[in-house]
Write a structure and sequence with these properties.
The structure is a single chain. It is built from 14 helices and 14 strands. It is of the alpha/beta class and 415 residues long. The longest helix has 23 residues.
Length: 415
């Protein structure tokens, strides 16, 4: 082995070891972990909002609870997906001998004008989100995100010791891409969740293209399209096909109803995807890959579910506005935010007392709560509970931090 080859091998080993250490340094946070951690805001010993649960035991809701706190799809997996799982289950004693995961990647690539090497399959989009941040941020390369937006990338950035730059949303509650691009000339990742979680609002394709054309050299755009099918927003997959500096994330947890089954993609140039590999990648379960492919091949599924969820969202938003509750922006997906005009955590606690679980708050808007779109029956229960809570008086209650110490006074709505 010559000196240059030996040097390259040493660098490769150091990079792999660094990646392995970073990957092991913090758990990969998912929407489920964030939602569950926020479910008990007034419970002594509960972890702070946004942190993974450790040693708390299962957070099991009571019978009959309305669960509209984790942006799940109450319709569940499609019939085609369930049938595919049933077909695959007897083969579960073997690894993926039939190439189900490769078939899934090939199907997605063919449907979207991509090459199969542009598609990496993961168990959901949380892993590639986490690994993308670890790969492209560092103490010298920051993580830029909208505020509020999905928090998981920030926790990954803490692991890589990157500076976290939060940029408030624009006046229309889309991403303020010009402010984000200007926020740090040494940015490593500019994260755009489109549609945005928690607001459900969208950012235009024109703005995303502008950000790509004007971003700092060496940075990437990380475009999270978990909710894209539920909106009228244009996706960014053609920008991947054009070889641009971005990674697009997709998941089957939302419109496809497979949150508990786990499947997703990172979509990018092969050289960008290669930077994620040192952080590890578990083999996909054949049931998840088969269910995802069956979902893609169901040509009516997306349009049908978009209409069902959209109709329920529009009905709920119309009711909120008719009752003079303040909805933030013009949400297009399966979640929205309400400015309650009082401490949001206390509203969450009061709703939970009514057996209706709604989503969490974000520090920039402490009075705003996120609500996921459930079934029409679930949203009817939400309306009844929310009106009761908002019509009630607010009484001061203590909340506690992870160590059980008093953190602040919230206000619990009561009759």
């Amino acid at each position: 082995m010559d000196t240059r080859q030996s040097s390259r091998s040493a660098i490769g080993r150091r990079s792999f070891l660094r990646a392995a250490a970073l990957a092991a340094a913090t758990p990969i946070l998912t929407e489920a972990a964030l939602a569950h951690a926020a479910a008990d805001p007034a419970k002594p010993g509960a972890p702070p909002s946004g942190m993974a649960l450790h040693g708390q035991g299962p957070n099991i809701p009571p019978p009959g609870a309305v669960l509209i706190n984790a942006n799940e799809n109450p319709l569940g997996p499609s019939k085609a997906a369930c049938d595919a799982i049933a077909r695959m289950a007897p083969l579960g004693g073997r690894y993926d001998r039939n190439g189900e995961t490769e078939l899934l990647a090939m199907t997605f690539a063919a449907q979207n004008g991509l090459k199969v090497e542009n598609v990496a399959v993961y168990a959901g989009s949380s892993e590639p989100l986490h690994y993308s941040v670890l790969a492209f941020t560092s103490p010298d390369r920051s993580f830029v995100t909208a505020d509020p937006s999905y928090e998981a990338g920030m926790y990954a950035a803490m692991t890589s010791k990157a500076r976290i730059v939060k940029v408030p949303l624009a006046a229309d509650y889309g991403h303020d891409v010009k402010a984000m691009v200007a926020a740090d000339p040494n940015a490593g990742v500019i994260y755009i969740c489109n549609p945005n979680n928690p607001t459900g609002t969208t950012t235009t394709k024109q703005d995303i293209v502008w950000a790509l054309d004007n971003k700092p050299k060496g940075s990437i755009l990380l475009v999270d399209e978990a909710y894209i099918h539920l909106s009228d927003a244009q996706d960014a997959l053609d920008l991947v096909a054009a070889g641009k500096d971005l990674i697009v994330l997709r998941t089957f947890s939302k419109i496809y109803g497979m949150a508990g089954i786990r499947c997703g993609f990172a979509v990018a140039r092969p050289d960008l995807l290669a930077k994620l590999k040192p952080f590890g990648q578990n083999a996909m379960p054949i049931t998840g890959s088969a269910a995802a492919r069956a979902s893609l091949e169901d040509t009516t599924l997306v349009a049908t579910r978009k209409a069902i969820i959209g109709d329920t969202r529009r009905d709920t938003l119309a009711w909120l506005k008719a009752n003079n509750y303040k909805v933030i922006g013009a949400p297009e997906t399966n979640c929205f935010m309400i400015d309650t005009g009082r401490d949001g955590k206390s509203v969450i606690a009061a709703m939970k007392a009514q057996n209706v679980y709604i989503g969490r708050t974000w520090p920039i808007w402490p009075n705003a709560v996120r609500v996921s779109v459930g079934t029409p029956a679930e949203m009817a229960a939400f309306k009844t509970a929310f009106k009761a809570v908002m019509d009630s008086k607010a009484v001061a209650v203590e909340t506690h931090d992870a160590g059980g110490h008093r953190a602040d006074l919230g206000y619990y709505a009561t009759a």
